[in-house]
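[User] At your convenience, examine this fold.
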Amino acid sequence: MSIENKINIDLFKVIKSAMHTSADLESMGNNLVQLMTGALDIKGCSLFAANPQKKELDIFTTFGLSTTYLRKGAISSKKSIAAIYNKKPVVIKDTSNTDLLQYPEAAQKEGIKSIISLPVVFSGKIIGAIRLYHNQSWDVSDHDLETLMLFTDHVGMAMTYTRLLNAFMLIKDTVQDVHDIWVDPC
């Protein structure tokens, strides 16, 4: 029996377009997790930002998961699906039978049966992760996994670009707020 592909080019285009037309990082992330959850017909999706000082993944935005699950505790980058730090996706087909989860009981209570964790990489560095949560066992096809990895490359570029653009606009606005008398040397 062959594994069904869930991701086609049209889905990829819709999600990419919604991300790249977002004015700020928050709306980009919200669009991403909501579209991924709906389009893939899964329980939920989370976008994480890497926190190298704490060696944790900080939840940037999420959709479809309960507040109880989200408050389960800090997500250690060494304990929670740490294999993404090899810059490869991690597929957990059965959350009740894995040693990769930091909080397996919380996943069971939430009704999460499978998780796909994807590293978000920019310029060779892991800057975050995307996790897809399914309430059924998910035997993801090689095609879908490759497409998701290509997609996370776009997420890394979009996150970095949006951060830089927002920083530039803040600097521009600050400079424009300075009265001419303070910046005119004559």
The chain has one domain: 25-174. Helices lie at 9-20, 25-40, 67-70, 104-110, 142-177, 180-183. Residues 142-177 form the longest helix (36 residues).
